[in-house]
């Protein structure tokens, strides 16, 4: 027996260095969590603070920075563009990704593993590695700087993502249900409408919500392909932080809080429908 010692009372006890390793690991995890929570809390508090210099808390609290950010950064137009881009990306990704996932889950054909590898690449490879060539191509065909170009660029990683999310859901459905429906006279559309869609609804919902969250936070591809009238919320946040001019930090923090809240809201809902461990297992396969 390795990795454990038998005590006088008959219980097995982990070796000393194993316990030290577990304590150190959990200490690092909690240090990371507290660090992230501290940064998020400081941004949120500063977005409501009147002045905050050298004290634990601001001198006072106000909500005027949110109204200021709304007017200064034209947040109304930015949110409309963000909703258009995200809605189009989610809808097209589901329409293309679900049938592709069904074909990969149900059919065996030559080159299937190669196709799976090609689908995984846009999800695993850093976005910037293919973002610059993609943006160059879109500008050459006069789609760069347009809303259509932004949507096409965001579809490159999201369609494979939907395939990876949906494939495990489809594999879990018993094929005998489809066969039984066909024996009873159901056509392809009826099988899809009355058998597959109800069973796949949680998976489709999870995939759509995860794509929604990913599209809201997709910075590189949107930044490289967006024009002045097609910037989403995350690109506007970057532009507000690093463009020329003097701005109140509280306004930038208010914009950041709007972005964080919108992303976290949809992410929490998505996690109610999908198991991240299942997705990691699928990628490893």
UniProtKB/TrEMBL annotation:
Pfam families: BPD_transp_1. Residues 79-270 form the ABC transmembrane type-1 domain. One of its GO terms (cellular component) is plasma membrane. This is Spermidine/putrescine ABC transporter permease. It comes from Aliidongia dinghuensis. The keyword Cell inner membrane applies. It is a multi-pass membrane protein. Its main location: membrane. GO terms for biological process: transmembrane transport. It comes from the Bacteria. Belongs to the binding-protein-dependent transport system permease family.
């Amino acid at each position: 027996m390795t990795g454990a010692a038998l005590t006088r009372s008959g219980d097995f006890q982990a070796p000393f260095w194993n316990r030290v390793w577990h304590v150190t690991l959990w200490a690092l995890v909690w240090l990371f969590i507290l660090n992230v929570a501290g940064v998020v809390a400081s941004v949120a508090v500063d977005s409501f603070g009147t002045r905050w210099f050298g004290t634990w808390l601001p001198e006072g609290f106000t909500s005027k920075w949110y109204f200021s950010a709304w007017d200064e950064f034209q947040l109304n137009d930015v949110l409309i563009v963000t909703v258009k881009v995200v809605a189009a990306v989610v809808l097209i990704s589901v329409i293309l990704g679900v049938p592709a996932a069904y074909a990969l889950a149900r059919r065996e054909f030559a080159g299937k593993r190669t196709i799976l590898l090609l689908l995984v690449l846009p999800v695993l490879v850093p976005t910037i590695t293919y973002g610059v060539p993609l943006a160059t191509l879109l500008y050459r065909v006069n789609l760069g700087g347009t809303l259509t170009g932004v949507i096409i660029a965001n579809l490159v990683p999201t369609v494979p993502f939907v395939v990876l999310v949906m494939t495990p859901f489809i594999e879990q459905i018993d094929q005998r249900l489809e066969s039984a429906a066909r024996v009873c006279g159901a056509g392809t559309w009826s099988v899809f409408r009355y058998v597959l869609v109800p069973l796949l609804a949680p998976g489709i919902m999870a995939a759509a919500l995860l794509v929604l969250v990913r599209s809201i936070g997709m910075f590189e591809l949107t930044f490289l392909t967006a024009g002045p009238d097609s910037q989403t919320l995350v690109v506007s946040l970057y532009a507000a932080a690093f463009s020329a001019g003097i701005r109140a930090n509280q306004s930038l923090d208010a914009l950041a809080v709007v972005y964080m809240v919108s992303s976290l809201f949809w992410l929490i809902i998505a996690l109610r429908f999908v198991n991240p461990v299942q997705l990691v297992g699928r990628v490893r396969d």
